[in-house]
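Q: What would this chain look like folded?
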Amino acid sequence: MPDSGSAQQLDRLLDLVSGRRLAVLTGAGISTDSGIPDYRSADAPPRTPMTYQQFIGDPLFRQHYWARNHVGWRRMDAARPNPSHRALARLERAGLVSGLITQNVDLLHTKAGHHRVIDLHGVYARVRCLDCDALTSRMALADRLEAANPGFADSILLDGLEVAPDADAVVTDTDSFRMVDCLHCGGLLKPDIVYFGESVPKPRVAAALDLVDSADALLVVGSSLTVMSGLRFARRTAKSGRPLIILNRGGTRADALATLILDAGCAPVLTALSDALIPS
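A: My prediction, written as structure tokens:
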């Protein structure tokens, strides 16, 4: 933590977490060091994510999305955990983090070795049929889409391609892209991701609430808490009187409720925290 005054902030953080088991909530800001951009930082380009109603209601939107996703998911699949993910996994292995809720769909916490992860908004690597609820891997669907659109992905320059946090790549020419349907029932396929305007499944919310309620404090990492799906956990923690710690570049919707706010990069703080708490 190289910034001036950072040593005092680390001391305050250590005081708050000492003797407490942490629940952790992460957002897109933790994955930027892995090459996955966020939605709301000062450097993030303007983005308008597809809504659930657009996806199910307009075939042209679906065609546009699947064409872009057919390219973008490969970049997300190739992403690897960064020091922030590894530091949190290390804290979990040491018994200091009881579990983690992530708003990200990138699977980087699982790739880093976390065992108790609740993927609040789903994951990029699965596809669900909206008619029969059958699940398939994104890799299997990629093979089918490639067969239906030979050479489409290869025709797009992958180096420097802009990919959003939901694996949606910036591809403009999608008019000729052919979609495929569910192999089981011929139904409508959708990434197993919670879109804007769609509710998080109730069992998933219940599991996340149990995780937060059983912890002694909540650490929010890399999230502006703009959407209610994440903000609810911060509010619940603050209402209970337990410490709410926020580590994020820029303000969040829960700053007024926080016990401690660290406006800093995720990796330096989390690495310093794990080094301080876990003997080498």
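The longest strand covers residues 122-129.
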